[in-house]
Write a structure and sequence with these properties.
Helix content is about 30%, strand content about 25%. It has seven helices and nine strands, in the order ββαβββββββαααααα.
């Protein structure tokens, strides 16, 4: 929460988010979350003719004059948090209210110049070789906006409300198999507009601001693999982190599963993935002691038993040859 309270500075020109600045040590995940509301403010009301995917015969070098017709329909390539994809706009004047427009834009993620892809998973597997290219993920996003406009000047407008609905379909087996559907809904509504903001009401400027890019999500680059010497030096610290994570997970599971529990579990698996076979064996021997029949019956060892279960499951999820070998050795030694 402390990171999300840090301010950002945004350059917003004619409905487009052109530049984002944030504090130097504001992490990328925090800036990405702040990009979410800004994404709902991205709007194109008067595109240049060169930007249109459906040409109307005018010269490509000239700008399209602000269209005063009551309804417009056009397609452009528009950037957002996911990349630069085809976007269809439907702009129409409200029949009930004056100077109010209803803007509907629909994203087509099958036609993109640049589509951001980021994979986050602690599951390991091997891709199956096939000549058939299957589309495992299909996305559709539609945003409806209520806009107060100045028909004499196209650059003057006010977004009163933005309602975004999204649907992502993940087919993890095949087109004939099962699928997972995720629905997302975002609503951004203007509650108050002021012509003048008092000094005490102003949001403070970011301290030591630095450019963070534009509207497109930015993910932190993965750290390069450590050398063997670096790995040995950091093993003690990594083992301490594994111990802390096990204790945190054990306490959490005894009380209630919190929002931090899944992330702590993923961190534990990631830490184990960085260990060599010798290091995993050392962790295994220290943290997964051999459980005899008599010790299973003793309630005083409940804490160690819970930690043992966590690590056995985490070793299984790690997916590396070293971890599987450590598990096999434990089974052969009757420790598991």
């Amino acid at each position: 929460r402390r990171q999300l309270q840090r301010p950002i500075r945004v350059r917003y020109v004619d409905g487009k988010v052109e530049k984002i600045e944030a504090e130097k040590d504001d992490p990328e995940w925090s800036v990405n979350i702040k990009r979410g509301p800004l994404n709902l403010l991205q709007i194109t009301r008067s595109p240049k003719n060169s930007e249109l995917l459906d040409k109307d015969g005018r010269e490509a070098t000239s700008n399209v004059a602000f269209d005063k017709s009551r309804e417009r329909l056009f397609r452009i390539m528009e950037p957002d948090v996911f990349g630069e994809c085809e976007t269809q706009y439907h702009i129409r004047d409200s029949q009930q209210e004056q100077n109010v427009q209803v803007v509907t834009k629909t994203k087509d993620f099958q036609n993109c110049r640049h589509r951001l892809e980021e994979y986050v998973s602690f599951m390991r597997g091997r891709a199956v070789r096939t000549n058939v290219r299957e589309q495992h993920i299909q996305s559709a996003v539609q945003t409806r906006m209520r806009v107060i406009s100045d028909r004499s000047r196209s650059e003057r407008f006010l977004i009163q409300q933005a309602d975004c609905r999204g649907e992502q379909v993940f087919r993890f087996l095949s087109e004939r198999g099962g699928e997972v559907v995720v629905f997302a809904k975002q609503i951004l509504q203007l509650t108050e507009a002021k012509s003048k903001i008092e000094e005490q009401d102003r949001i403070p400027e970011p301290s030591q601001p630095e450019p963070k890019g534009d509207l497109i999500f930015v993910f932190e680059k993965q750290k390069p693999q450590e050398s063997r010497e670096q790995s040995q030096e950091s093993f003690v610290e990594r083992k301490e982190r594994i111990t802390r994570l096990c204790d945190e997970l054990t306490r959490g599971l005894k009380e209630t599963i919190s929002e931090e529990t899944p992330m702590a579990w993923m961190k534990l698996v990631m830490e184990l993935r960085q260990l060599s076979a010798e290091q995993l064996k050392e962790v295994y021997q220290e943290k997964i002691p051999m459980i005899t029949k008599s010790s299973r019956e003793q309630t005083t060892e409940e804490q160690d038993s819970e930690t043992r279960k966590l690590l056995v499951d985490a070793f299984s999820m790690t997916g590396t040859e070293e971890a599987l070998k450590a598990l096999k050795d434990g089974i052969d030694e009757k420790g598991i």
